[in-house]
Design brief:
The chain is α/β, with parallel strands linked by helices. The protein contains twelve helices and 23 strands.
Length: 492
């Protein structure tokens, strides 16, 4: 989180802003580079076919499917093995206590608790405090690059008989190499590679983009995309656990007759509070860069719509973006076009906004002078907090938020907002510009205490170590002298 920036959202028409899907022959570019010889190149192109060709008669659809299943099985085994290293009693289940006991004795309690929370949030989907083998297996993700590589090779089948033999692929590779090796010396020079370098980068980037699982766009609906980094306001409810930071953006639906299909992306975990003419909404898809587990559902949610109209997309699928700079458009919008079979009707972006009106794309920025000080909060630290969140704190009822992750009220708010809250409660005292003393037990450390938010906490001798992730901040126990977090901060 960095101080809020004035950033006006703007619209661009989708036409001409999408990159076409890579042609099948582009996969042959992937092994080309300056200095490559024809022998090296052909061997590298044919190697994946040799590995996947089970019967030795050429690559076919069955080989591609089997390779996908084999990769998935290996990834499941890896996730299960990762979990079972904590299974101290051998019952094929892992509890929080087992994870705590498995941590190094060097780690102090706060770090152990943070590690336990991280593992549980990664695997424990039903939130019962126990990780099962089934939950571990469900966390495995498919190696999509291998899938695309084999499917791309099979698409080169020159006689369309459903099989690509090594002999056929060698001939295709040799022919492709010769189109780049213009002096026919059997080696790609830097000058020969230069004309295809950008084509190769673009093709590989597109090939490795995720395949997003999105609901179809209803006939007649307008497809509108908004990309942001964060929100001007902080939500009083957190999505995905007490160590997360959850922002809030209001989505104002303007009056109109045409149905709307909205895709809302953000870097931060987000509550999208939808209001206005919500009858127009056919579907809202939300995604963020934050998730409880790698490849899992985004830690975002929607307030103001029924669950049937809300899709919580997988982490970064679609990928968050907040500016249109070419690469962002490809990585964020190409998967949308691929998944929905059409381009967006309108695209809007904004680094940080208080609200966005759709479908016009009109943004609103928060006015700090209108942001109220919550009752019981420390005024001085509150001023520091609204540098980062000029929209202040917005009350959100957890039960009103549609999300795939747990939604709960913060015990302690993030960063400077949390410090303002704790100082106001008398649990924390400010002792310097970036130093604080915890004088009474607190239920949790303020989340997101990293980067510009990092501070040093001195823990009074009679106060227990609070749970939570200190990130880049430091906690020094006055009783034991132990240091938690970034020791370089403690030496300031």
């Amino acid at each position: 989180m960095i101080p809020a920036m004035a950033s006006m959202a703007f619209a661009i028409r989708a036409s001409g802003n999408q990159t076409a899907n890579a042609a099948p022959t582009d996969i042959l570019d992937e092994r080309l580079h300056a200095g490559a010889t024809i022998e090296q190149y052909v061997a590298q192109v044919v190697a994946p076919l040799r590995s996947a060709d089970r019967m030795g008669d050429g690559l076919d659809h069955g080989d591609v499917i089997f390779a996908k299943l084999r990769t998935a099985a290996q990834q499941r085994a890896g996730e299960i093995g990762r979990v079972l290293r904590y299974d101290l009693d051998g019952d094929l289940k892992v509890t929080r206590e087992e994870i705590d006991q498995s941590q190094s004795n060097v780690l102090v309690m706060a770090r152990r608790q943070s590690a336990s929370e991280s593992e549980l949030s990664r695997y424990d989907k039903d939130g019962d405090g126990t990780i099962t083998i089934q939950e571990a297996a469900a966390n495995a993700t498919r190696n999509r690059r291998s899938d695309y590589q084999l499917s791309g090779l099979l698409a080169l089948d020159p006689n369309s008989d459903g099989q690509l033999t090594a002999k056929e692929l060698r001939k295709l590779a040799e022919r492709h190499f010769s189109t780049v090796d213009t002096d026919d010396d059997g080696k790609i020079s830097p000058d020969e590679f230069a004309p295809i370098a950008q084509r190769k980068r673009t093709a590989m980037m597109e090939r490795n983009l995720p395949v997003c699982n999105l609901p179809a766009v209803p006939k007649g609906a307008k497809l509108v995309v908004f990309g942001g980094y964060e929100g001007d306001a902080m939500s009083s409810a957190v999505i995905g656990g007490p160590d997360q930071e959850t922002n809030l953006i209001d989505v104002n639906i303007e009056s109109g007759s045409s149905p709307l299909y909205l895709i809302l992306t953000s870097y931060e975990s987000m509550v999208w509070r939808v209001n206005g003419d919500t009858k127009r909404i056919a579907q809202v898809v939300v995604s963020s860069a934050k998730s409880a587990q790698h490849g899992g559902s985004s830690l975002s949610g929607v307030e103001g719509l029924p669950r049937g109209k809300v899709t919580i997309a997988d982490r970064q699928c679609p990928r968050p973006f907040y500016k249109t700079d070419g690469r962002s458009e490809v990585t964020a919008l190409a998967p949308v076009t691929k998944a929905l079979g059409r381009k967006p009707d309108a695209i809007f972006t904004g680094y940080s906004v208080k609200s966005i009106s759709l479908p016009s794309g009109r943004p609103t920025k928060a006015n700090v002078s209108e942001t109220p000080l919550p009752r019981g909060f420390d005024p001085e630290m509150w001023q520091a907090a609204i540098r980062f969140w000029p929209g202040g704190l917005v009350t959100v009822k957890p039960g009103n938020v549609v999300s795939d992750a747990k939604v709960e009220a913060y015990k302690v708010l993030p960063s400077q907002m949390g410090l303002s809250q704790l100082i106001g409660q008398g649990a924390v005292e400010k002792t310097g510009s970036r130093t604080f003393r915890i004088v009474r037990p607190i239920p949790h450390l303020p989340p997101s205490m990293g980067g510009a938010h990092s501070v040093t906490f001195n823990l009074a001798s009679d106060v227990p170590m609070p749970p939570g992730n200190p990130v880049h901040s430091c906690i020094r126990s006055e009783k034991t002298g132990q240091v938690v977090g970034n020791e370089t901060i403690c030496k300031r």
